[in-house]
């Protein structure tokens, strides 16, 4: 990449962009050479165990569409980890971004971001990606179904609708354990009080003190039919843990006009254990013995190899690497892959024989 900055042009023969970016981050500034970085400029508690971080990205961030997410990389105990987080706001004039992170028990990145991220910290960002977006010219009804942290892309989509001039109905069903776990609670309540076409339903699964409008229970056809007048005229978006999304898809995907979904939890398929296999890592010239009862990415991490990764769910392609020998299983489809020189997403593939990877 040709640099327009005279200082960068002058020092480029002396220092690589990666080394420059490393030291810039050490010095807590987001003026990196080519890496999108973001400085935390505000932090507030959004709900129990959930924190919203307002971020100022540097000039290398290319922008986003509501409903998309970014990969965030941070160091936890000296080891870099990458996870995906949805951008919860709409694109703002001041360029600031926000993410809302819910702490997962035992989770490395969510715990670090929720408990230790402070104003002034610098995070590494990837570019925005993701297909859970909305067409600008759509004039029909919207049905949003969110569970837990799955509210994050949904709130961005809701914020992007011109709600003050709404001509269509917007229905949000939002599942959480208790009222204290609901993110954006006040904003959503105010919106539903102000806007008659915005229909808000909180579904609380473990709340002891239910209010008159609170609902209970898992997603069911009876519930949807009770709350949504004409299913066939809905453009539906669902987001949350994989079990929730699968359940909702089974119930309504065939009944609504349009259905899109995104799951936030990693692959949990029961992977058959074939014992250990040898993985040869061509580029780093090493061989490791890895487990076959989990995705290759997790199996490699268990033995100290940390390939680039992002969503850990087969969405972002960050972990894709070339397989030059061996058999792997695609854990999303159950298909065996015997091809050589094929691109393998190691976060959703398990080893089925000794393998050689371009890592
Ligand atoms: C496209 C996409 C967008 C996302 N957007 C958001 C967002 O806006 N806000 C947000 O809080 N999270 C979001 N997530 C989830 C996020 O990327 C991480 O998976 C989550 O923060 C846990 O990471 P961790 O490092 O703390 O846990 P890890 O250390 O990776 O895992 C610890 C344990 O928790 C389990 N686990 C991992 N992820 C989850 C999860 N999401 N729910 C329940 N258990 C889990 C693991 O199986 C493991 O047992 C998104 C995920 C994807 C794929
Ligand atoms: S980490 Fe995103 S596809 Fe594997």
What this model shows, in words?
The protein has 359 residues and is α/β, with parallel strands linked by helices. The protein folds into three domains: 6-125, Translation factors (Elongation Factor Tu (Ef-tu), domain 3), CATH 2.40.30; 142-263, 3-Layer(aba) Sandwich (Rossmann fold), CATH 3.40.50.80; 277-357, Ubiquitin-like (UB roll). It has helices at residues 6-11, 17-26, 108-116, 151-160, 185-194, 221-227, 242-252, 296-302; strands spanning 37-47, 50-57, 69-76, 79-86, 97-102, 122-125, 141-147, 170-176, 198-204, 234-240, 258-263, 277-281, 286-290, 320-325, 328-330, 336-337, 342-345, 349-351, 355-357. Strands 4-3-6-1-2-5 form a six-stranded antiparallel sheet, covered by helices on one side. A five-stranded parallel sheet has the order 9-8-7-10-11, with helices on both faces. Strands 13-12-19-14-17 form a five-stranded mixed sheet, covered by helices on one side. A hairpin with a 5-residue loop joins strand 15 (328-330) and strand 16. The protein is globular, with a radius of gyration of 22 Å. It starts with 5 loop residues before the first helix and ends with a strand. The model has no long low-confidence stretch (mean pLDDT 89). FE2/S2 (inorganic) cluster binds at residues 309-312, 314-319, 345, 347. Flavin-adenine dinucleotide binds at residues 69, 83-86, 99-102, 104, 106-111, 149, 152, 241, 262, 264-266, 311, 313, 315.
